[in-house]
Amino acid sequence: MATITAVEAFDIRFPTSRELDGSDAMNPDPDYSAAYVVLRTDGAEHGHGFAFTIGRGNDVCVAAINAHAPLVTGLDVAEVVGDLGGFARRLTHDSQLRWLGPEKGASHMAAAAIINAAFDLAGKVAGKPVWKLLADMTPDQIADLVDWRYLSDALTREEAVELLRAAEPGRAEREKRLMERGYPAYTTTPGWLGYDDEKLVRLAREAVAEGFTQIKLKVGADLGEDVRRMGLAREAVGPGVRIAVDANQRWDVPQAERWMAALAPYDPYWIEEPTSPDDVLGHAAIRRAVAPVKVATGEHVQNRVIFKQMLQAGSLDILQLDACRVGGVTENVAILLLAAKYGVPVCPHAGGVGLCEVVRHLSMFDYVAVSGTVEDRVIEYVDHLHQHFLDPVVIEGGHYVTPTAPGMSAEIRAETLTAYAYPEGSVWQ
Ligand SMILES: [Mg+2]
């Protein structure tokens, strides 16, 4: 019987600010980073996970991972992978660590990194990619993953099980289609705010040529510039390609409404993070004002409770869950079930460090076993840092190729862990 012998945490940072990759209206100089965790065991398999941050503060997440280590070290691997919901609640219900959130911020992101590492371990033990591990569970086993506390006014466990049962007959057929076609993607690569016009137009044209049917532009720093760049992008891709815009929380509610009125002639598909991720009613007001442009948010929504309120208040057209911000796979299963109940498409946040690698498992599980559709659903894609992962994403014809390697694709190469360690790695000298 294998045991978790250690929880190892690493501060890994990539100097992306040097090329302005990842630059937006709120984050002009990100250094994409991972607070990376390895669940070391005395068995054949180990679990890998991470929290994504953008530089300063990554050490805070590493410290938060270390603070959770005593809850995990010494646990029996078979017991952990046999009750992943119970394992997650062991972390998020710890009364002393919970004081730092509850269920939000650095402590929750640290719990997410460890919970995702446990799913990675479970996938490896079972010999399955995590999307398949989840999609092979019975409706009751899936419901057992979820922390149902605070959800029953919007979704009960019984309703969720019913919803999952209704999707069961089509699972095999959808899994077959997933293996053949993969899952639709859109690209943010052309749209970083720090890129000049030539780079924006060139990358937008390349995206369409590669088969993407949606791109995304960062907006929110300067209205005149945004109108001009949006015009350039629309001209580059033509009328048939969707252009989403992303303000990264920059605006107040009235400002969002004015800004989107100015961009409307260029037919934006969605406005992402128009204002604070905590502002449930503000998002609802913006949504009423900017329709038929859709409102999307979620990458900074802290937990299932805020997502629940956003769905109840009609704040969202598109739900953008993040694999590493809320409490890992288990809380994201709750969010996928909520979205399915309210009929809201999930288009996950990705990019960053490894977010594309891990979040595809959640969308693919959703397609096979929860919502049962890819209509109006796309996973974000950004084409950097994939080379640092052992099981990197592959995009073909604007689709994520379905991963088949066991685990959650979170493992970073050993040489990267050495070179990009902060501050002692060679890249930072
Ligand atoms: Mg965004």
From TrEMBL:
Reactions this protein catalyses: L-fuconate = 2-dehydro-3-deoxy-L-fuconate + H2O
Q: Which terms does the UniProt entry file under GO BP?
A: amino acid catabolic process; carbohydrate catabolic process
Q: Which cofactor does it need?
A: Mg(2+)
State the top-level EC class: lyase
Which Gene3D superfamilies does this entry report, sorted A to Z?
Enolase-like C-terminal domain, Enolase-like, N-terminal domain
The cross-references to PROSITE patterns, in alphabetical order and at most eight, read:
MR_MLE_2
Q: Which GO terms describe its molecular function?
A: L-fuconate dehydratase activity; magnesium ion binding
UniProt xrefs under SMART domains: MR_MLE (SM00922)
For this protein, the Enzyme Commission number is 4.2.1.68
Q: What's a Pfam family in this record?
A: MR_MLE_N
Q: Which residues form the Mandelate racemase/muconate lactonizing enzyme C-terminal domain?
A: 197-293
Q: List the InterPro entries hit by this protein, alphabetically.
A: Enolase-like_C_sf (IPR036849), Enolase-like_N (IPR029017), Enolase_C-like (IPR029065), L-fuconate_dehydratase (IPR034610), Mandel_Rmase/mucon_lact_enz_CS (IPR018110), Mandelate_racemase_C (IPR013342), Mandelate_racemase_N_dom (IPR013341), RHMD-like (IPR046945)
PANTHER family, A to Z: ENOLASE SUPERFAMILY, MANDELATE RACEMASE (PTHR13794), MITOCHONDRIAL ENOLASE SUPERFAMILY MEMBER 1 (PTHR13794:SF58)
In Swiss-Prot or TrEMBL terms, this protein is called L-fuconate dehydratase
